[in-house]
Amino acid sequence: MPAYAVGHKVPDSDSICSAIALSYLKTAIGEDVRPARLGELSPETLFILDKFGLEQPELKLTFADTAGIYILDHSDRIQGPDDIDDCTVLGIIDHHKLGDITTATPLEIWVRPVGCTNTIIKMMYDFHNVEIPKNIAGAMMCAILSDTVIFKSPTCTTADIKCVEALAEIAGIEDYKALGMEMFTVKSSVQGTPVRELVMRDFKDFNMNDNLVGIGQLEVIDLALFDDMKAELHADLQAVKAEGNRHTVMLLLTDIMQEGSELLVVSDDSSIVEQAYNTKLTDGKAWLPGVMSRKKQVVPPLQNTFA
Amino acid sequence: MPAYAVGHKVPDSDSICSAIALSYLKTAIGEDVRPARLGELSPETLFILDKFGLEQPELKLTFADTAGIYILDHSDRIQGPDDIDDCTVLGIIDHHKLGDITTATPLEIWVRPVGCTNTIIKMMYDFHNVEIPKNIAGAMMCAILSDTVIFKSPTCTTADIKCVEALAEIAGIEDYKALGMEMFTVKSSVQGTPVRELVMRDFKDFNMNDNLVGIGQLEVIDLALFDDMKAELHADLQAVKAEGNRHTVMLLLTDIMQEGSELLVVSDDSSIVEQAYNTKLTDGKAWLPGVMSRKKQVVPPLQNTFA
Ligand SMILES: [Mn+2]
Ligand SMILES: [Mn+2]
Q: Is the dihedral of CA B117, B118, B119, B125 positive or negative?
């Protein structure tokens, strides 16, 4: 019976590439671990897998009947498989705040305050002295460029930069920044995509003092891409809030060139959001200069204000 | 403002030696981190510090006013500082099941399914390429010998054995097993010690499905040392249970030569304990052959039976 490596719901490139990379590493050291995914892939992730000739991980939603799971890129039960409480968690590899997963038995946890889970997976390869295949190194590198917004995010550390440089060398990629921009151009193609798909593309739920708060993020190379669709996006946030009985739903529209985010908000109490970010909402919107990271700049202040 | 490295309440040798070792490592890489302890030291730990000329960590019970804490040898809030919810947890280094500590910000977590926290700290020294001072290496080695019962505990892994061998070399100790036996002889001197002190020497509380369960353990080289005091120990367990409003209090009397434990139990529902260990209690006592590890052999079955 195999174990599985699985990232969070609404998988991003970090969740998918780390599942592939960890499974390869574990298999190399004699553990039967296979990559899985909890949802459909984004255009950005499809671009990466296509670029490096990698297969999509198996779509698999429950794991109680497996040898166990390695939880990647999250440690909140709400972001993991629905049957996580019935699973054996063998390990957690993550770069976020520590969530509410608990276990009944000892396990392996690699959590570091770095920009991307794949940076930590690279440390695991080094620790076990396992060579990273070229194509997996390329995918890991792209995941780091994605999570760190090509090093522009405040979550980016020197460990991430060094890791990208090492992986680029293994993958034989000379201009990794150009590849990063190509990837973000793919990510920025929002026209023609259903609004709900955009809202959900990188959407995470958080439990904040027993209030359910959903926060989505879209990173584009030019915010003007959204000019025609903000009203539609706002209406859909309202729907997402109602459908999930959420207290608050927010969407961050992040401009990676201007280095800031427009925040769209629907909430039972918008004043909490205004207080958290020390801003004033106009028609449920506010521009947050310098804000690029949901994890580091958006979740903690809101969590503190709710608490 | 410094940060602190602190193990669990009722500190054991692993908690104290890892606090000293981590503080030295963090200081070496430029972080101001100091060792602290949440309680008085056991005779075993005093023996180790004396042997290697190390100072006792500062007795310090609250940390909200500090730069943050590294949590060692546990990840359960109940085992940590009383004001843990108001502290910034900078990191967790542990070898137990994952407990209920959560954080608002990203952090560093090193958890491995090995026999001792100090085995993981050694990995951290290797990762950062920092040389371990002779005396700290000796203390780390003793902590591993203590937690793994000189490699006899089922929690002991090859990583622990290799780590002890490497640390013995750094510390210049030729016969580390003899030193281990010397240490366990110190640990075994129970005569003349107040009963409450024995019960509390290595005592941990667990939250099991919202029931408070306290489990103490005494490891000795000969169980006969307790022959005269079992009735007294049992009476004191009853008192500890009442004072702390606990559902169950147990004391493991572990014979490290016979490799098994006598279990003393007081409980609101002894049948849960009998079910967990598939045994029958006689006068609140049972012999559990082969059981040496609270973490691996005592806590998980009880947790499962409560759940
Ligand atoms: Mn990530
Ligand atoms: Mn320990």
A: positive
Tokens of B160: 């622990």
Nearest beta carbon to residue A106 from set B89, B105, B113: B113
Q: Do B97 and A103 touch (CB under 8 A)?
A: yes
CA B125 to centroid of ligand 2, rounded, Å:
18
Q: What's this model's pTM, rounded to 2 decimal places?
A: 0.87
Domains of chain A, CATH where assigned: 3-185 (3.90.1640.10), 195-306 (3.10.310.20)
ipTM confidence? 0.85
- Which residue has 């359960």 as its token pair? B76
Burial of A117: CB neighbours in 10 Å, binned 0-12, 13-18, 19+: buried
Instruction: Give B89's contacts in chain A (Cβ within 8 Å).
Output: 98
pLDDT in tens, chain A (307 residues): 899 999 999 999 999 999 999 999 999 999 999 999 999 999 999 999 999 999 999 999 999 999 999 999 999 999 999 999 999 999 999 999 999 999 988 999 999 999 999 999 999 999 999 999 999 999 999 999 999 999 999 999 999 999 999 999 999 999 999 999 999 999 988 888 899 999 998 999 999 999 999 999 999 999 998 998 999 999 999 999 999 999 999 999 999 999 999 999 999 999 999 999 999 999 999 999 999 999 889 999 999 999 9
Q: Quick check: B104 and A296 CB within 8 A? A: no
- Contact by Cβ (8 Å): B142, B16: no
A-to-B residue pairs, Cβ atoms closer than 8 angstroms: 84
